[in-house]
Automatic annotation (TrEMBL), chain A:
<keyword id="KW-0175">Coiled coil</keyword>
<feature type="coiled-coil region">
    <location>
        <begin position="5"/>
        <end position="32"/>
    </location>
</feature>
<dbReference type="GO" id="GO:0000775">
    <property type="term" value="C:chromosome, centromeric region"/>
</dbReference>
<dbReference type="GO" id="GO:0005634">
    <property type="term" value="C:nucleus"/>
</dbReference>
<dbReference type="InterPro" id="IPR027801">
    <property type="entry name" value="CENP-P"/>
</dbReference>
<dbReference type="Pfam" id="PF13096">
    <property type="entry name" value="CENP-P"/>
</dbReference>
<dbReference type="GO" id="GO:0034080">
    <property type="term" value="P:CENP-A containing chromatin assembly"/>
</dbReference>
<protein>
    <submittedName>
        <fullName>Centromere protein P</fullName>
    </submittedName>
</protein>
Automatic annotation (TrEMBL), chain B:
<protein>
    <recommendedName>
        <fullName>Centromere protein O</fullName>
    </recommendedName>
</protein>
<dbReference type="GO" id="GO:0031511">
    <property type="term" value="C:Mis6-Sim4 complex"/>
</dbReference>
<dbReference type="GO" id="GO:0005634">
    <property type="term" value="C:nucleus"/>
</dbReference>
<keyword id="KW-0137">Centromere</keyword>
<keyword id="KW-0158">Chromosome</keyword>
<comment type="similarity">
    <text>Belongs to the CENP-O/MCM21 family.</text>
</comment>
<dbReference type="Pfam" id="PF09496">
    <property type="entry name" value="CENP-O"/>
</dbReference>
<dbReference type="InterPro" id="IPR018464">
    <property type="entry name" value="CENP-O"/>
</dbReference>
<keyword id="KW-0539">Nucleus</keyword>
C-alpha cells in the first residue's frame, strides 16, 4: 500500500517538473517567434488603460506594466547614450532547456559610435543552488573596419577565446578614440 | 472471568474498527493520488501537444494564436515587449557595463569574465546631485577605488568606469587562474597555493606530471600591473641542489608563466608529458 503511494508521489513530482519545463519552453517559443511593432505596442498601452481597473487575464495591473516598460526603456536609452553602444537587432532562440541548464543562440547587431558589428554566440546558463553562471561559446564576430589590421587581429583573437566582454570593452575604447580622431580631422578640413 | 472476557472483546472490536478506518483512509489517499496523477498527465499531454504544434507551425508573424482568442491581449503584447527589453539589458550586462537609473542617480553594474566565462559582478551606486559621488558600492577593499574615483569620477564618469572595469577584470582573472590551478592541478601542487587578497602575489611549490613524489620547483609570481592578468615577474627556482636539466626547465617555466595563463601553462605540462609517453 505504502509503496504504491510512494510511486504515485514520485510520478506527481516528475510530472510537475515536466509541466514547468514545458510551460517555459512554450513561453520561450512564443516570445521568440512573435514580433510587435512600436505602433502595436502603443495601441496595446492605450487599450490596456481603457480596460477596467484591476487584473487583466493574469497580467499585472495596467499601471504596473506601463511603469515597468517605461523604466526599462529609460535604462536602455541611458545606457546607449552613455556607452555609445546601440543595439539595432537582437534575437535569441532557446536551443535547450532543462531543470538547471539553458542554452540560447543569440544574434546581436549594432554600432559603437560609428563602427558597426554583428555577433552570433551561444549562451549557456547553469543554475547551481542560488548561483547562476554564464558561459559564452561559438562566438562569431563580423566587423566592417577591415582596413585596420589591428582591428581584424583583435577580433579574431577575442573570437577564438569567446571573449565577448573584452571585445566590447576594447571596441568601446577604440571606437571612442576613432571618433575623436575622425572629428579632429574634420575640424581641420 | 466474564468481565475480562468482555473487556477483551471490546478491545478487539475497537482494534478492528481502528484497522478498518486506517484501511479506508489509505484507500482514500491512494484514490486521491491516482486522480492527481491523471490530472497532471492530461495537463502535461496538452502542453506537449501545444509545444509540438508551435515547433511545426512556426514563425507566423503573430506566432501561434491561442485557441479561443483571435487577437493577443494587450497585456500579452506588453509582457512581450518587457521581456524583449530585459533581453537587451542582459546583452549590456554581457558587454561589461550595465546600469539602472535610480531616484537620485544611477547604479552601474560592472561585470567580469575570463574569456567566455562570466565571473562576479560589482555595483557602483552613484548620486548625481549636488555633484557626482558614490552612494554605495560592492568593490572589494583591496581595489584602489578611492584613487580611481578621485581622479576621474567628477570629470569623466565613462573613463572612471572603464579604469575600474580594467582593475576588477584583471583581479577576477588572476583569481580565476589561481582557482583553476588549485582545482584542476592540485596533485601537482604541494599543499595550497599561497596568495594575497588582490591575487597579485602567488607562491607555490610544484612538480610536473610523472616526476615522482617530490615538488622540485618553487614559483613566485608577482603582478605589478594591477590591470594585467599576467605576471610582470615570474621567479622559478629549484628547491634542492638540482641537476642542470631541472634548472633549465625552471628557466623555461619562468618564461612560460609570464606569457601564458597559469592554468593553461600547467595544461601544457600535462600535454608535454603525454607526448613523451
Amino acid at each position: 500500500m505504502d509503496n504504491t503511494c510512494q510511486v504515485y508521489e514520485d510520478e506527481i513530482q516528475s510530472l510537475e517538473e515536466e509541466i514547468k519545463l514545458l510551460t517555459e519552453q512554450y513561453k520561450d517559443i512564443q516570445q521568440e517567434s512573435t514580433f510587435y511593432s512600436e505602433k502595436e505596442i502603443l495601441m496595446a498601452i492605450k487599450s490596456f488603460q481603457g480596460e477596467f481597473q484591476g487584473e487583466s487575464k493574469g497580467y499585472g495591473s495596467p499601471s504596473d506594466l506601463k511603469a515597468q516598460l517605461e523604466s526599462l526603456e529609460a535604462d536602455l536609452s541611458f545606457l546607449m547614450k552613455f556607452t555609445g553602444i546601440q543595439f539595432t537587432r537582437h534575437s535569441k532562440k532557446t536551443v535547450e532547456r532543462t531543470r538547471n541548464r539553458t542554452v540560447q543562440k543569440h544574434r546581436l547587431s549594432g554600432t559603437c559610435y560609428s563602427l558597426s558589428f554583428q555577433l552570433e554566440f551561444q549562451l549557456l546558463e547553469m543554475q547551481d543552488e542560488e548561483k547562476v553562471s554564464s558561459v559564452i561559446t561559438d562566438l562569431c564576430i563580423v566587423m566592417e573596419s577591415g582596413e585596420d589590421l589591428n582591428v581584424s587581429e583583435f577580433v579574431s583573437r577575442t573570437e577564438e577565446h569567446g571573449d565577448l566582454l573584452t571585445f566590447f570593452r576594447s571596441l568601446s575604447s577604440y571606437a571612442e578614440w576613432y571618433e575623436h580622431r575622425r572629428r579632429t580631422f574634420l575640424h581641420f578640413k | 472471568g466474564v468481565f475480562t472476557h468482555l473487556e477483551r472483546l471490546e478491545a478487539q472490536a475497537h482494534e478492528a474498527g481502528r484497522k478498518q478506518e486506517e484501511k479506508e483512509q489509505q484507500e482514500e489517499k491512494l484514490a486521491r493520488l491516482k486522480e492527481r496523477v491523471e490530472e497532471l498527465r492530461t495537463q502535461r499531454d496538452k502542453l506537449q501537444a501545444k509545444v509540438d504544434l508551435q515547433q511545426k507551425g512556426q514563425t507566423g508573424r503573430k506566432g501561434i494564436i491561442e485557441s479561443g482568442t483571435t487577437e493577443p491581449s494587450a497585456g500579452a503584447v506588453l509582457e512581450w515587449k518587457i521581456r524583449r527589453l530585459q533581453g537587451m539589458l542582459q546583452a549590456f550586462y554581457l558587454t561589461g557595463i550595465s546600469a539602472k537609473l535610480t531616484k537620485r542617480g544611477v547604479c552601474f553594474s560592472i561585470s567580469t569574465a575570463y574569456e567566455g566565462t562570466y565571473l562576479d559582478s560589482y555595483y557602483l551606486d552613484l548620486l548625481i546631485r549636488p555633484e557626482v559621488q558614490i552612494h554605495h558600492h560592492s568593490v572589494p577593499i583591496f581595489i584602489p577605488l578611492e584613487q580611481i574615483t578621485k581622479r576621474y569620477l567628477k570629470t569623466d564618469i565613462r573613463r572612471c568606469l572603464s579604469v575600474l572595469s580594467d582593475h576588477l577584470n584583471a583581479y577576477a582573472r588572476r583569481k580565476y587562474q589561481a582557482d583553476q590551478l588549485q582545482e584542476h592541478f592540485s596533485d601537482q601542487l604541494e599543499g595550497t597555493l599561497q596568495r594575497n587578497s588582490l591575487c597579485n602575489l602567488l607562491v607555490f611549490n610544484y612538480k610536473v606530471p610523472g616526476e615522482g613524489k617530490t615538488f622540485p620547483f618553487n614559483a613566485r609570481l608577482i603582478y605589478r600591473d594591477l590591470c594585467c592578468s599576467l605576471p610582470t615577474e615570474a621567479v622559478v627556482s629549484c628547491t634542492e641542489k638540482a641537476p642542470e636539466s631541472l634548472q633549465e626547465t625552471a628557466a623555461a617555466h619562468s618564461e612560460l608563466f609570464r606569457h601564458l595563463a597559469l592554468h593553461k601553462a600547467f595544461c601544457s605540462f600535462s600535454r608535454a608529458e603525454e607526448r613523451e609517453d
